[in-house]
Amino acid sequence: MAKIVNFGYNIKKYLGGNMNLEALLGLLGGQDLGALTSQIGGSENQVKNGLEAALPAMLAALNKNTNSEKGAESLNKALETKHDGSILNNLQGYLSNPDLKDGEGILNHLFGNQTSNVANAVSQSSGLDANGSMKMLQMLAPVVLGALGQQKKENNLDAGGLNALTSMLSGSLGGNEKASGMMGLVTNMLDANKDGNVMDDIMGMVGKFLGGKK
Do you know which Pfam families this protein is assigned to (predicted)? Predict the structure, then answer.
């Protein structure tokens, strides 16, 4: 499959460097975090920890997907036709009545048969149960695509711009040990030729994740 290379995008020029993990987490603060917690269960602290694991996992998968021309065009089409950012206009309303089927479809596209392993990793790193972690991922997926769709619309990004955007977002996490650990784990999961026990990898990553908490 052809790789997308040399798009020539200076994505920070378009976004001003304002879209990063903190910005995405900021979308889900305050009352929105409360609405998310009510749906998922657990404590707000567990949900925050879950978000800090789930968002990097999704960014890793999005970056891997958009590294191919077909994947970037597929994301571009999805953002044009369905995920244009309007979900962010009433995020609390969406979180109170989420479209889990839509989220499930997005997760299957991003993670394929590794979706349950990603949910297990989020569960282990956050303290949420497996069902709560899966529901979080299902609820979060349309929000993440909505945030990308908003950036696409505001900055007139095409498939190449989306590839540059997901690459920038992933790169911005390099200094965050917890986030980069989750991204590395997910990237390995999505490698079809990877050998070894996925659960061993999850537990190893979680050990580092928990060890880094303050």
Answer: DUF937 (PF06078)
